[in-house]
Prior knowledge:
Blueprint: H1 6-14, H2 49-66, H3 90-104, E1 112-116, E2 130-137, E3 140-146, H4 153-171, H5 182-192, H6 196-203, E4 204-205, E5 221-222, H7 223-227, E6 235-236, H8 242-255, H9 269-285
Parallel strand pairs: 1-3
Antiparallel strand pairs: 2-3, 2-5, 4-6
Helix pairs in contact: 2-5, 2-8, 3-4, 4-5, 4-6, 5-6, 6-8, 8-9
Amino acid sequence: MRDQHWSDRLLNAALGERPDPRHRPEGFGETPPPWARHASAATECPVPPEEQRQLERWLRWCVKEFGAPQGRVVAAPTRTFYPAGYHGSTEQIEELVRRVCTVMRVEAADLEVRYLESEPAEPRHHRSTTVGTYHREDDHPVISLDLRGREDPARLTAIIAHELAHVRLRGEGRLPAWEREEEKLTDFLTVHLGMGVFTANAAHTVTRTAHGWSALPMGDLTEKMLAGSFLGTTHHLGYLTDRQFGYALACWSHLRADPAPGWAHHLTPTLRAHLQRCLAYLHHTGRRLDD
């Protein structure tokens, strides 16, 4: 029992055996999560076959284009990641950009950061307001960030990561000719380059104001996609769904030979559950992702 993988113990729990609390992975309560109630949960892929193939194709392409994930830093929303005493000054934002550049291995010396300050969108209105952009100017990359988002460093970091993924994809001339869903690949690349905790959390937020985020082609982020309209008490936005982010993070972690990543506790509960279910699936099926 001591050497048994935690996903095996979840299957045992699904079959009626009560898991030993000494072996319960971090984040699990006294009872197995809903997805562990049936033994088939760990043997069926949590995303549909077409999405599974697409996500795995992106992973293999990222490995070929940007290198294997082993040894990459995984950024997490901790106090040490943000500039000390963060209060949203432009100097602190620029330092935050540099830190994200370090994680994603972007050449910050050629990068220009600009700012815009959009007008607040009226509640329940569908007006789009740009909150972040990427383009090239005089042969160097330029990203613009909406200063209205400066008070939430985690949300701002996710936007920065998405724009910098455009820098690495389109700015470095790496965007594959066969890809027709650039923004989804851009989201996926943030995972491969170590910023997946931020972007997954920002894409999934459960609040009355339905704050989430997404992006337009070429990295134009809009307030309509960022804040959405009032859709009730739960709402999530983003080019990748919760399950897709969960499978992307799981495949990336599985390729790193890390079946119980320590950074998982920084994810929202829903995303963490998707990640754990996807990791259980990958473990039990022995799926090869490096072919």
